[in-house]
Amino acid sequence: MKLAARTRPDAGLHLGWYDSPVGRLGVLAGPAGLRGLDWRLEPGDASTEPDPTVQRVLAQLAEYFAGERREFDVELDLPPMSEAARAVLRAMSTIGYGEVATYGELARRSGTGLPPRAIGSVMGANPVPLVIPCHRVVAADGLGGFSGGDAGQELATKRWLLELEGVLPPALF
Fold first, then answer.
1. Which of 4, 36, 42, 129 is within CB 3.0–4.6 Å of 28 for a Cys-Cys bond?
2. Does domain 81-164 have CATH number 1.10.10.10?
3. Residues in a beta bridge with 15
4. Which residues are catalytic?
């Protein structure tokens, strides 16, 4: 996965939706790649006409939620961001399926010198959760936070995703 900087503001964007076991996900993409993936995606003026990149991401989401895909293979069209934020996202993208890293470990891996709390802020602004797997970053003493998922269900969503990947045992209740 290539972490490219956004090339054109809003030219040719397309929107699709995926109804996942943890809520409805919006997929926003354009000619340069995937721009947004989120439960609370603001699509703006994006077209809902079929688009190859959107269709590819929707298919990969279906495979992921079926337990058949362990990493996403799609070009990214990320918004402008600091080099430190880009380094954190790049380091986060190396955390494999079924693995976790703590905020402190991610801070070290990124080489940015950012403290763990700042790492959490960068993660909260991740424009493509699941593809850049912020759900795989946990606190040293528990799950930590998560900004993905339906409102009020963020930590339940993170737990569900980690259960899907075999990191956590399935919840009994």
1. 36
2. yes
3. 28
4. 134
